[in-house]
Amino acid sequence: MRRITRIVTVGATTAALALTATACGNKSSSDTASSGDSAGAKAAIAYDVGGRGDQSFNDAAFAGLEKAQKDLKIKGSAAEPSDGEADADKIQRLTELARAGNNPVIGVGFAYAPAIKKVAAKFPKTTFGIIDDASVTDKNIANLVFNEEQGSYLAGVAAAKVSKSKTVGFIGGVETPLIKKFEAGFEQGVTDTDPKVKVLSQYLTQPPNFDGFSKPDLGKAAAQGQLDKKADVIYAAAGLAGSGSIEAAAKAGKWAIGVDSDQYNQKGLATYKDSILTSVTKDVADSVFNLIKSVQDGKPQSGEIRYGLDKDGVGLADSNPAFTKMTDVIGAVDKAKQEIIDGKITVKTTP
Amino acid sequence: MKKFDKDRLILGLAGPALALVVAVALTSLVLLVSGRDPIEPYQIMFDSASYVDVQVLIINQAGTYYLAALAVAVGFRMNLFNIGVDGQYRLAAMVAALVGANVGLPGPLRIALIVLVAMLVGALWSGIAGILKTSRGVSEVVSTIMLNAIATSLVAWLILPKNFGVQPAGSNNLTTGDIPESAWFPGLSLGPEAGEIYGFTFVAVACGVIYWFVLGRTRFGFDLRATGASESAAQASGVDAKKMVLTSMLLSGAVAGLVGMPTLLGDTHTYSIDFPAGIGFMGITIALLGRNNPVGIALSALLMAFLVKSSASLDQHGYEKEIADIMQGLIVISVVVSYELVRRYGLRRQQQKVGEELAAGGALKTEKEEAAL
Question: Which residue ranges make up each domain of chain A?
Fold first, then answer.
């Protein structure tokens, strides 16, 4: 008996291994896709590292897709990346989505740039969108980019105005050029408003460690450190990790500034919402929806689509009544906003 | 003459086989408990892997995994646990990419230089752990984990635009600049639909052969394995154990340095902040599963690459692709358990056999007697 079971197990594994090793075929995964399937319009997004449920960037893109599903009656699909994947995997993913008849296909995050460039050339009739990158261009590529530094500048103005200790803190999730735009804008906003205010800056992790976008305990510890150094306003551009910073600031009775979406209204942060002065919003959802709509309307967007303060692509949320009551702060913010739109103030993108 | 030992082979295969069966069964159980079809995900994965372009992805990924697992296995054979392969290959790939983009050498020479630099940097980084171990007795497990974190920070600092990094116009990425096309490692193209197999995948195979030869067929390999089995015994027979620790650590790091090469030379041609990370840890799993045997590791690498690549399509069919992650985790656990079980079974069997032979009275024949018969 024993011998038989052993032989069976050995046989099964050898077969399984042999299958993986020698599975041969001449079809390619994109062949099966029904490109002519015009039963309904389809759109797809391919997520960045972190995927859905990151409470930030990827979720915002999904919100845009969801809205398009409801308002435009399209069928949306999404694909997640795997850890430690290379460009080849992204190319594969985008190709599959394009072959399946999705139009547009949107890559969430700058990491998709090299892959979009190659795949877009293969599917000239499909529109491709890429968020946060303007380095790859083609007739059928729409580069959806944001002036994060402008929204952050306004946050800096507000922070400098409300700070009593003359010390404010910036917490960046992962030290990437993208997050540095937030830092640069914030710092400039603070210094332009009140040169005496000191800005403490800190990053949670360095790539390829992206924990700084996902681990609230890191944000909390960093915020605690800044509070100990007398900071009384803390701006965290750190995705989900930022909720830890908000918690720490709220518990200390200080101000927190949220990021990406209006965090005052986020359910998970309801306990601390009174301490959330405002949030720097970045309307990824809207940009995704607009691109899908433009394709539906037969006038697909192409080239650089920049979302700045002028188009409300970035901005400062005003849902906290305590914030709107500070008329002098609101006045300063509105003035700065107008000056940026008019081009009187140019906000730096690097610190 | 050495006889072909059927028993040993079967026992050797039983370990991974048992582990895989248990892992698959447990994964199905997880699926069942969460109210999903326990079989369909496997079908989807096998379907996906029957496409030629996915096969190319699997093979390319397996080549990278293979190098990582070899690097880990070199350490394992010496009873050293090099957890630092991850940091070693990332730092090595980054520095090599930087050198490759900036040193003006003709194509093939430039490739040779890139590979050499990668191996040296990998060896340097693991060598730190080796020196710490031989001179201060610091456990390589602790030091290599910490060196991983330091490598991350070092790479992040080196790649800043104010140091050596480049930020392409309009991009939010940082790179080390592009390696010119003359120094791209040629691959084996299988047509426009299938893509191409990285040329470096074949180098990985060659590394497997070298690994087999050096460890199994040379004096050095014997010393290394002997020191791994018992340091004091090896020392008594004239092997400098400390030197062996340092050498195998350097060797492990040099192989680790190659891990980033298939991707760097065959695909990205630059090191950017989204360069694949975490392959070093996959290498540990694979080396364990493959029992440090060059062929075993190759099969394990293919299996893991299959799991990772074919699971990508689960998303499109309403399953979470994390199913493959669960499976990988379960494989690691069951590998450890099943190897121990099989080892004990083998031991018992051996005792039984000797007992039987003794009872039969015909035991303990010397080789001379056997030859005389």
Answer: 42-146, 148-282+320-341
